[in-house]
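Sample A.
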Amino acid sequence: MHSNSSFLLIGYDTDYLETKLQELEYKPIAINVSLDTKVLSTKEHLSRFLEKNSLFEKTTKCIYASGLEGRNYLYDLIESKLSICGNNLSLLDKSGFIENFSRELRSCELKYPKTYSIQESPLVSDKKYLFKPVNSCGGYDISQLTPKKANSYIQEYIDGDAYSCSFIVDDNCFKLLGFNRLLNLNSHYENDYIHAGVLMTKKRFPESLYNAIEKLARILKMRGFNGIDFIYDGNDYYIIDINPRLTSPFFLYNDISDNELLKGQIDGRYNWGKIDYKNEPISGFAHIYTKDDVVFKETSIENINCMNTPHNGDVVKRGDPLFTLLSTENDYNKNINNLKRQIEITKEHFNIYDIMFSHE
């Protein structure tokens, strides 16, 4: 069907999307942000990459996940040469700082943590704060101690549970796919708030939150698959990130839909009759990070269910993701137990960071 159609894919851990695009008979060309750093370093490097791979045609489609944050020097080139599947990059640019959405959030009666510039120095002893860089991604470079990036700002720390909601939008419809509990590591030598995985949850939230998210999506004219992260402190909900792109839970929901979400993302419209999540299975995943430099061996993963694995013999540096563990037990708490079991097996081969889990 699409055997002659090239497709540019930008993101971290692109293996899954490459496979799913191939199933749709596309020819994906991937820019793996963690590996192909030079390609995205300047507009000139990206231009040469596009030209080398014959991607200078508006008929070439492009899907982006994480990795383009803060690279607005590339946005004009990408949008002028490729057909974006999803939101305009201007919305991604805006999403780098939650304060940019203050007016829209207030109009939807959604709260967000108070933010300050470094120069304001609002710190008081009875409150906690985070130093968070503009265009942060994956929880990297967020700290409670000192700013790690020159473009950091101060955000009031909200003590509570972190969730994301995943939804899709086209010209006609909005559909909330589900809520996900966000996982963190117990510790990390460099990044305390690094993204460590997701568990789909059946936890019920107020109808007012559903309605507010839909209203916000329509005000922002979002398209395709999107995610919004928030903290629930037991009383209120605080929006901490708006992600107008494919986020990490995408593959969980796409697998449930038998690749229909990816088809809809590409076409700009969804076959709503094929996207039914009323009795969806509950699944989850955990990113595993190594405490040491390690040489990956395929024999180490024989008794676990994982993806995003290195090649046999690859060196994985201290603090980097090793692979992603999967669980499809169709129950939130059983998924936790299954992931814990697989983590213990992994510890027999690697020195890894523990992950914080909370049963429901």
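Sample B.
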Amino acid sequence: MNTAIIIDCSAIFYQVISRICGYNGKNIKNVVESGRKYLTLEKEQKSFLQDMHNEFDSLNKYSAMLNTTGIYFAFDSVNAPSFRFHVYPEYKKSKSRSKEQVYDKVIFKKLIGEYCDVLRENGFKVIEWDGIEADDIFFEFKKIIPDHTNIGIITPDSDIDQLLDHRTFIYNPVNYVTKVSSDFRMGGTYSNETGETDEFDFFFGNSQNHTLDTNYERFFSNKTVVCPKSSLFKKIIIGDDMDNIPSFFRYRTKTGKSEFAFTKDRYKQFEAKYPECVNLSMLNDDEQFLDLLSKFSDIVGRDLDTGRLEEYKYKKDFNVSMIDLSESGKYHKQSPELLGIIHDQVRKPEVNFGVVTFYERDSEIY
């Protein structure tokens, strides 16, 4: 079974620089300051880019045993904001994000642009388009790759879980977890040191004729089964904090003075009490949607405010348009151009991954 690997370069960039600067989820101010000092020095920029390339080189080596048909590099739009900012100006804006943090992102953006240019110059399969995010690229990418080829998406981003299916898996290079759907297929062959070819199932390890090496183990030993439709349903209901997309269902306190969102904890209660309602069809039919809102109200201990029904419908449709990748294409309307770029990259020949040396580049980022 052949596999096409596509890497979420922008997301991995942020993960690596956070690790370098010692970000632990709380010390954002220190990370911003150390990141600025680290990344404004030309020597450190070159060092960081080289470290990033080495990181991707290791992913390339891990993926080699998957009968890889190509390694693709997907980037969020480098030169223009996402089309989602035009639809929703508050997209990705957080109340906790300081001016320094925004500046920090600007530094990252310039470095990402530099790395994207380097890969293009060296003939790598780069997919990037003005106004389009890597998430949208993954969705369109699946249309191009033939069905007999599996797809591996390398990203730490859970937004992509909705794309899991019988031939698509997601590998998180940060925690080494591989996500698959329950119907995922991944058979293949592996040649051991003596040259014997052995057929096996990548995820359930039925091979008897050889010992699996560390590359295999890192990619597939730590796996988890995810339902893509349930994952998408949950995102639409509770929103996405990282992208500043709120839950569409909000309820008032008994005094009516304050309002609360339907949180992750509330969703867990709903999922446990009404598992039969965790279904995307509940969002598409007016009668079922009303029933869904009634169950949300039951979870939070309130009577359903039917006067807000149209508001809930509007906000639900908005969340679908921002989160469901099959719907977002209606907004950016660039699928034909993007599919053309992907086609061009698929046809390009593979190049030696380890050829780039950033210390030899004369270009200035600033």
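B remarks: DSSP finds 13 helices and eleven strands in the chain. The longest strand covers residues 68-74.
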